[in-house]
Specification:
Length: 620
């Protein structure tokens, strides 16, 4: 048995350790899968958010790219709009006010132009001569003063050489018959930062959310598609304006002016900690080249962009991208302006506590736990069975040894005619008869219990008068009591005698005989003689209770429950017995639909057993 327990412990430990490892790995894989799904969902929503924001910014960039170069002059002559030079306007020429002079935009702070000599001008800023020509009906003086102040601030933010370097690689458009035609010069989308700006640190890159490999593979295509949308809007918008009908400009003759499309750039603001967003393009005529730009109100634009995606990304931020565009930036970069989307923290997704993997693990734990428990119970039952068999062998061996010794001794004496006295011969023959009955009872109990355990003993309870049943059963019990020198008192009231019980007569007879036999063996007084035994019956509802009581030393309360276990005997018991009588008696009682219990008498000493049998229900 110790070896079996050791094997069971090692097997159970191995099974549980394996299941723990499988559970940890399964939960890890489930967690990683959840993180992957969350990342994929994040990227999908980020992709849609980028499309939405580029859709808002693209019209702004397209509108500014489509403006003709002469709109950057506060007052211009239509006849000189396509002139290869910017000559002074004569007093006799008809002047037209630029739309930018009075234009209002939520996202534009100022339109400006940088000449070849590095001087700054703006279509919203008028010279004294231009103010006299424009008069107050064209523009409010307060607006002109505000634009003048902004132009002074702009001179401290943008250096002319930086602006020329920013648009050096920009795609250009040439005016042909009032239409915009694209040149084949490719746009360099990676040259987006002034040389003095730095790329983000490694820690900042690691703080960005992880990107799924599948989205990374699609990111360049998505970025190009969004960029094409911006370019498409720019081309469409550039065709919405036309040059005035100039008589001396033949139809189909290319104009002398070449202007590029707007390119977004970041410049350090006056406070250095803030960046200013500019749209820049170059306008070239012969050897003369100017830079035209738009100073955007980035805080206002950022607020509207963040509000557009607030439903999907409540904690999102837009960060200026001041470094060269890399592949890792594509899933978070806007195509219209150099801005990166930082999704920010998102509410954790509610996960089901009973996912398929966890249900499978729970089932596995239940199965393994059940298997370990069943194995433990089986091992325990096997051990108990082994103990019971050992006790049975010990008890039966002891029970058989005494009568067999008596049989051998007395038969030898009788067969060799060593006993000549007739009285002694009768005494020896009587002893042999008693021992034979004792052996017969032992064999009968063992065989009966074996049949009950195997289910081969089919009891068929039948209606029987309680009086007749107890009279027949008490007759054999009385003989056993008299044989041990005890007196059996039988009390059966008349109402009980008239009742009809549902029972098996042979089983009831064997039960009562076993109870009286136990009383004869164990209920001895101080002198070692058998005590009085009482057999009484009473009616309780639809049951009859037959009580067998003795006046011996009694049974301790903690032993009463174990008395009915097979091969179990009370502590300190020295009388002969196999330990099967009470176990067999209870099984027989239950087979008849009744019950056998051990109780403590209310008065006096001794032990009492009650046999409960069902009565036949009377149908009126």
């Amino acid at each position: 048995m110790p070896a079996q327990r050791t094997i069971f412990a090692l097997g159970s430990a191995a099974a549980l350790a394996t299941l723990v490892w499988v559970s940890v790995e399964t939960l890890r894989l489930e967690r990683e899968r959840g993180e992957t799904e969350a990342a994929a969902e994040l990227e999908q929503e980020a992709r849609l958010a980028l499309w939405r924001m580029d859709g808002l910014v693209a019209p702004i960039v397209a509108t500014e790219s489509s403006r003709p170069h002469f709109h950057y002059t506060p007052l211009y002559s239509p006849l000189k709009a396509l002139s290869p030079t910017w000559d002074e306007i004569s007093a006799v020429e008809t002047l037209v006010a630029s739309p930018l002079l009075t234009a209002e935009s939520k996202y534009v702070r100022l339109h400006f132009e940088i000449a070849d000599d590095g001087s700054f001008s703006s279509p919203q800023v008028l010279t004294e001569k231009q103010r006299a020509l424009a008069a107050d009906r064209y523009v409010d003086r307060a607006r002109v003063d505000d634009a003048t102040s902004k132009l002074e601030r702009l001179r401290r933010i943008v250096r002319p050489e930086d602006a020329r370097a920013a648009v050096a690689e920009a795609r250009v458009q040439q005016l042909v018959d009032g239409q915009a035609a694209r040149s084949p010069v490719p746009r360099n989308v990676e040259s987006l930062a002034p040389a003095q700006q730095e790329a983000p640190t490694q820690a900042e890159q690691q703080s960005q959310p992880r990107k799924s490999s599948s989205w990374l593979s699609r990111a360049p295509r998505e970025y190009v598609q969004r960029q094409q949308q911006v370019m498409s809007n720019t081309i469409t918008s550039s065709r919405n304006w036309s040059l005035p009908n100039i008589p001396w400009l033949p139809q189909g003759t290319p104009g002398p002016m070449i202007q590029g499309e707007m390119t977004a750039r970041w410049y350090a603001g006056e406070m250095k900690c803030a960046l200013e967003l500019m749209l820049l393009r170059k306008v070239r005529s012969g050897k003369s080249e100017r830079i035209q730009g738009v100073w955007l109100d980035w805080p206002a634009l950022r607020a509207d962009l963040v509000a557009a995606i607030a439903e999907d990304f409540p904690g999102a931020k837009l960060t200026p991208r001041t470094w060269d565009l890399r592949d890792d930036d594509l899933p978070r970069a806007l195509a219209s302006i150099p801005v990166m989307l930082v999704p920010g923290p998102r509410p954790a997704r509610a996960r089901s506590l009973m996912s398929p993997a966890r249900v499978a693990l729970l089932a596995a734990w239940i199965a393994v736990g059940g298997a370990v428990l069943a194995s433990g119970l089986a091992l325990r039952a096997s051990r108990q069975l082994s103990d019971r068999r050992a006790r049975f062998v010990s008890a039966v061996t002891h029970e058989l040894r005494t009568p067999l010794t008596t049989f051998r001794l007395y038969t030898d004496m009788l067969s060799s005619e060593m006993v000549t006295d007739e009285a002694k011969r009768k005494e020896y023959i009587g002893t042999l008869t008693t021992e034979a009955d004792r052996l017969g009872l032992l064999v009968e109990n063992v065989l009966s219990y074996s049949r009950l355990e195997e289910g081969r003993a089919k009891r068929e309870p039948a209606p029987v008068a309680v009086g007749d049943l107890l009279e027949r059963a008490s007759a054999r019990a009385t003989e056993r009591a008299e044989a041990c020198g005890a007196e059996l008192t039988v009390t059966i009231p008349e109402d009980v005698r008239a009742a009809t019980a549902i029972a098996d007569e042979a089983a009831v007879e064997q039960i009562l005989f076993n109870l009286v036999d136990n009383a004869c063996k164990h209920a001895l007084d101080a002198d070692g003689e058998a005590s009085a035994i009482e057999l009484a019956a009473r009616r309780s509802g639809w049951h009859v209770i037959v009580r067998v009581r003795d006046y011996g030393p009694g049974i301790e309360s903690d032993m009463r429950g174990r008395l009915f276990e097979p091969f179990s005997r009370g502590e300190g018991v020295t009388a002969a017995g196999s330990g099967l009588g009470l176990a067999l008696s209870r099984e027989l009682a239950r087979a008849c639909g009744g019950e056998l219990t051990c109780i403590a008498p209310r008065e006096g000493s001794g032990a009492a057993f009650e046999l409960t049998l069902p009565l036949e229900i009377e149908r009126g």
